[in-house]
Design goal:
With 102 residues, the chain is α+β, with helices and mostly antiparallel strands. It has a 3-stranded antiparallel β-sheet. It starts with a helix and ends in a 9-residue tail after the last helix. It has a single domain, classed as Arc Repressor Mutant, subunit A, CATH 1.10.10.10. The longest helix is centred in the first third of the chain and has 15 residues. It is 54% helix and 14% strand. α2 packs across α5.
Length: 102
């Protein structure tokens, strides 16, 4: 049972740390300003194609979405157990003082 937990946990870690696209999502959603963004806003901020952004947004459990008419908005899931850890990791990676909080 413990082995299965470790394996699943490791799969989760490798999944969330595996791509440049994901790293850019983390910068956008877990940085200083963890705002809600429309798909096109994420595209502009990340520099990735809209299809890539849409595909990545569907994969991440760490991102929540909300529909408003024909638009879908995405934001970091602040209730996820890894939210603060990822937030601090992003701040450290971009050399932002940890005293700056959301």
């Amino acid at each position: 049972m413990l082995l299965a937990y470790k394996r699943d946990g490791m799969n989760f870690l490798s999944e969330i740390l595996s791509s440049r696209v994901r790293a850019e999502f983390f910068r956008i959603f877990f940085g200083i300003y963890s705002n809600e963004y429309h798909l096109r806003e994420i595209e502009r901020k990340s520099g990735f194609a809209i299809g890539t952004v849409r595909q990545e947004a569907k994969k991440l459990e760490l991102i929540t979405k909300r529909a408003d008419g024909n638009r879908t908005y995405y934001k970091a899931n602040r209730n996820h157990p890894l939210f603060l850890t990822l937030h601090n990791l992003v701040l450290q990676n971009y050399k932002i003082p940890l005293s700056v909080t959301i």
